[in-house]
Amino acid sequence: MVSFRELARRLISDGVVERITHQRISQLAREDADFPPVVPVGPSSVVDYRKARPYFANRKSKQGQRTDLKKADPEA
Fold it and tell me: Which residue range forms the structural domain that includes residue 23?
């Protein structure tokens, strides 16, 4: 089990991602239903690295995508 800060460090050092912050990991944990289970430990959150590594290795990055310029779905 690793903290989000340690997870970011390991993902970069293992070459899984080029760069990521613990803040982005926290955002993914809140917003992505496919994110591995998060366990609260005191004021921190931790995740099993053995489950998190494949999640990030298989995830399509959308860096720099401008969501404010996306057109609304006409069927919605």
Answer: 2-59
Which amino acid makes up residue 52? A
| Rounded distance between C-alpha atoms, residue 16 and residue 66, angstroms | 24
Tell me how many domains the chain contains: 1
**Kind and range of the H or E run holding 22:** helix 22-31
Helix pair angle (22-31, 4-13), 10° resolution: 110
3-class state of residue 39 by DSSP: strand
Residue bearing tokens 């460090």? 9
Largest CA distance in the chain: 45
**9-51 pLDDT, tens per residue?**
999 999 999 999 999 999 999 999 999 999 999 999 999 999 9
